[in-house]
Amino acid sequence: MKFQSQLSIVGAFVVLIAVCAVAGSFLPGINQTVYHRTDLAVYNQEKIAAVGQSVPDPVTAATSSQATSSVASHIPTPTSIRAIYLTSWVAGTPSMRDPLISLIESSNLNAVVIDIKDETGYLSFIPNSPTLRAMGTYQNRIANIDALIARLHAAGIYVIGRVNVFEDPLMVKQHPQWAVQYGKYMLNAAGKRVLTPANLVGTPWKDAHGNTWLDPSATGDWGYFVDIAKEAYSRGFDEINFDYMRFPSDGDVANAVFPISGSTPAPIVLTNVYQYLYKNLHNYRGPSGQSGPGLKISQDLFGQTTTTSGDMGIGEVLEDALPYFNYVDVELYPSHFINGWGGFYPPDKYPYQVVQETMHSAVERAKLLAAGSMATTTMYGVPRTKTVIDSILNIPLADRLRASPAELRPWIQDFTLHGISYTPAMLDDEMRAVQSVGLSSWLIWDPSNKYTATKQLLAGKQ
Predict the structure, then answer these.
(1) Contact 292, 285 (CB under 8 A)
(2) I want to staple 237 with a disulfide (CB 3.0 to 4.6 A). Which of 28, 232, 299, 325 is the partner?
(3) How far apart (Å, rounded) are the C-alpha atoms in residues 186 and 196?
């Protein structure tokens, strides 16, 4: 089976070896149980209380020991980035945060991802920006973010801020006209399609978790998360990682109405967002253009964007993101692939194979794009959809040539799902699989921030 490139600037056909047994999988092929869903604030507050720590007051007034408005320093981007993720509540709770910082310092980890804005919509620290303060969309979860980042930098730790983008109930409340809305029909509790109650039609639609979403074409919101990124850079964050920058995937999406996007293909909509971010944030150095490495930006994508033929119903196309971000972080949790994917039953038990096959496909797609071409079939020979082809062709050639496999930086799994505990050996398999395709950077995801396998595998390993 082959990738087929029909659009090379040199007119050549590019042949690649097939390495997976399932391709063209769309959204139903994903286990969506915990796809980058963090533990909610209530859960984290319970965890904090359990260890005897005071819970940060969510509505603390902007009074205190926040740093001045001077722009913080930054550290150079590591050649290989090896990070763990912290929720904002853990990052703001010393008894939970400090052991994880010690883990980074005592191992070959060199970076950390901290929630700046999660699915609740709240910023996790008090902003200096008058515009962001006036919006009131923040909580004082990390009481002195400036001191924390300074401490991390002093230890040589690269700091990445995670921003949840279009899943944002606070912005929906402030701007309901930007929201994804209920259409004429909806599914009832029995899963049958019925008329939507008249009082719900045109009101904010809710996903399977009860959360509301912004239409990705709401350009008024784009400036908001650019402002968040600039604020974070001014406080010392070295990189901004955008998550949930896509169309919704859970719940009755067939009856979700996008009043602004309308009939515009979802991949085109997201590419417009990517281009806006690149224009406004790429190598941003602050309002005065101070010296330093400049802001880096990254985008999270579903893991199967590396092998599927379509956009998975959420607008995500790997090649659309590659030209506009310093890193593209695909979420390669084996537990999130449908049972039988690639011939693996269940994929959870085959971490090396799942990560190796998906990343091999990602690398080859990136190589083709960087050569001015594209993969017109999946690894298994399934033609890619017209929507995807058109979306990639819509990207200026000069932008496509900017792509590089080196941008690929997967999220890997250290959490238990389906009753299959992730062991140090399984985590090591994921890391070896990344290395096998010529890459050396990865981010470890554990929504509970326990990192059981990580601690056993990496503690003391420099």
Answers:
(1) yes
(2) 232
(3) 5
The pLDDT confidence band at residue 35, using thresholds 50, 70 and 90, is: low
**Omega cis (within 30) before 216:** no
Q: Which amino acid is at 300?
A: D
CATH 3.90.180.10 fits 31-337+407-458, yes or no: no
Query: Does residue 36 surpass a pLDDT of 80?
Result: no
User: What's CA 179's distance to the chain center, in Å?
Assistant: 21
Distance of alpha carbon 59 from alpha carbon 413, whole angstroms: 33
Sign of the CA dihedral running 222, 166, 285, 136: positive
- Using a 10 angstrom Cβ sphere, with 0-12 exposed, 13-18 middle and 19 or more buried, the burial of residue 7 is middle
Residue type, 97: R
List strand residue ranges (DSSP E) for 111-188, in order. Answer: 111-117, 158-164, 181-182, 185-187
**pLDDT tier at 71 (50, 70, 90 boundaries)?**
low
Alpha-carbon span 339 to 345, nearest angstrom? 6
Residue 29 has pLDDT above 70, yes or no: no
Cα–Cα dist 264/40, whole Å:
33
Spatial distance between the Cα atoms of 39 and 142, rounded to a whole number of angstroms: 16
Q: How far apart are CA 427 and CA 444, in angstroms?
A: 9
Q: Half-sphere exposure (CA, 13 Å, Cβ side) for 225?
A: 33
Q: Sign of dihedral through CA atoms 342, 346, 350, 355? A: positive
Supply the DSSP symbol for 38: P
Among 149, 294, 296, CA closest to 236:
149
Where residue 59 falls among pLDDT bands split at 50, 70, 90?
Answer: very low
pLDDT digits (tens, 9 = 90+) for 111-123: 999 999 999 999 9
- Burial profile 296-335: b = 16 or more Cβ within 10 angstroms, e = fewer: bbbbbbbbbbbbbbbbbbbbbbbbbbbbbbbbbbbbbbbb
Enumerate the domain spans of the chain.
Answer: 31-337+407-458
Residue among 217, 246, 375, 215 nearest 316 (CA): 246
Stated pTM of the model: 0.88
Q: How confident is the model at residue 50 (pLDDT cuts 50, 70, 90)?
A: very low
